[in-house]
Amino acid sequence: MASHDLTVMGGGIFGLACAWEATRRGARVRLIERHALGAGSSGGLVGALAPHVPENWNDKKQFQLESLLMAPGWWAEVAATGGTDPGYLQSGRLQPIPDDRALTNARARIAEAETLWQGRAAWRVIPATGAAWAPQSPTGYLIHDTLTARLHPRRAVAALAAALRAKGAEIQIGDPTPQGNISQGPTLWATGYPGLLDLNTAFAHPVGAGVKGQALLLRYDARDLPQLFADALHIVPHADGTTAIGSTSENDWADPATTDAQLDAILARARAALPALSQAPVIDRWAGIRPRARSRAPMLGAWPGRPGHFIANGGFKIGFGMAPKVACVMADLILSGQDSIPPGFTVAANLPQAFGR
Fold first, then answer.
1. Mind telling me which InterPro entries this protein's record contains (predicted)?
2. Do the domain assignments include residue 340?
3. 140 and 19, same structural domain?
4. Where are the alpha helices (DSSP H) in 1-99?
5. 140 and 163 both lie in a single domain
6. Whole-angstrom Cα distance, residue 320 to residue 295?
7. CB of 242 within 8 A of CB of 210?
8. Bridge pairing between strands 309-313 and 299-302
């Protein structure tokens, strides 16, 4: 009999979230991380949990909506169990409306959001008042959605680890090989960008790749204010009195962990969009590789040809926002055999036949 009901490989947001959900359901869980918790893209700075635009609805948008709606209670339980605050707040978001066509579209989405978001959050068009904490808008109007939330990625990783330990889960840092057979009981592989490269080899086809991102952190306290989306940048106030700015999306890079002039350009754009940040000092910079599955949706489910092995990968830019729902569907599948993973999220959806070749 296996000493664990589930072994989770990988200490990023998907691995930690899935381990937590299984643990809270009573499973005996061991999590193995080779380097450090949050060592990959989950150790970033931004933490914007933003919804898709409420139009052209599909499974991906519905899945993300359900995850965002369950997030307040899910993260509150994590914080209460482990005594560590992930910095979660359903803060809402403001974004400028650039022209009359965009203003018409924004107003049309009010009714769509009321229906699609089930009356639990709102999409509004409001006048831009010129407040210091608001982006400048060419039309004089802003979109204000109340569904967007934020958390601090590093604090969220620490909060999940604390909750797991409080519930008796085992967290092991280092190479698993000397520790014995990791295949006892079901094994979930949530190993981020390196894991996608391994899957490319295992399947002899590209099922995913990495996209480099860069972000920075300012000493500016707007902790109770909405986050902003301006000039394609997320400007996210955190609970600790800092504000994160991000991010780039780079398909070509020389060094995955080094920041460069592209980050300086992001800072200049953020300060142009929000002059209140003009004197805020930079206190941290981050660069890392985010895992993107070929389908551009999270890749979830059983590992074809490897009974008892499962995959949760490809969080890309929305891993923290998707994490509660990802954790629930993976716990359902692994612990109960209940498969509610949307077709576009499956491992098969990332294999060649899904793309017609």
1. FAD-dep_OxRdtase, FAD/NAD-bd_sf
2. yes
3. no
4. 13-24, 59-82
5. no
6. 18
7. no
8. antiparallel
Cα separation of the two ends of the chain:
42
The tens digit of pLDDT for each residue in 6-38 reads 999 999 999 999 999 999 999 999 999 999 999
Mean pLDDT of the chain: 94
* Neighbour tally for 276: CB within 10 Å: 15
Tell me, what CATH number does 43's domain have?
Answer: 3.50.50.60
Residue pair 33/10 in contact by the 8 Å Cβ criterion: yes
Contacts of 285 by beta carbon, 8 Å cutoff, 6+ apart: 214, 215, 216, 217, 259, 263
Q: For residue 38, what are its two tokens?
A: 């949050």
Rounded Cα–Cα distance for residues 154 and 156 (Å): 5
Question: Is the domain of 160 the same as that of 205?
Answer: yes
Q: What is the pLDDT of residue 72?
A: 98
Residue 5 identity: D
308 in any annotated domain: yes
Please tell me the total count of domains within the chain. 2
Q: Tell me, yes or no, whether 168 and 120 share the same domain.
A: no
Is residue 298 located within the same domain as residue 205? yes
Say what the pTM is. 0.95
- Round to whole Å and give the CA distance between 124 and 72: 21
Give the domain range for residue 103.
93-129+136-145
218-261 pLDDT per residue, tens: 999 999 999 999 999 999 999 999 999 999 999 999 999 999 99
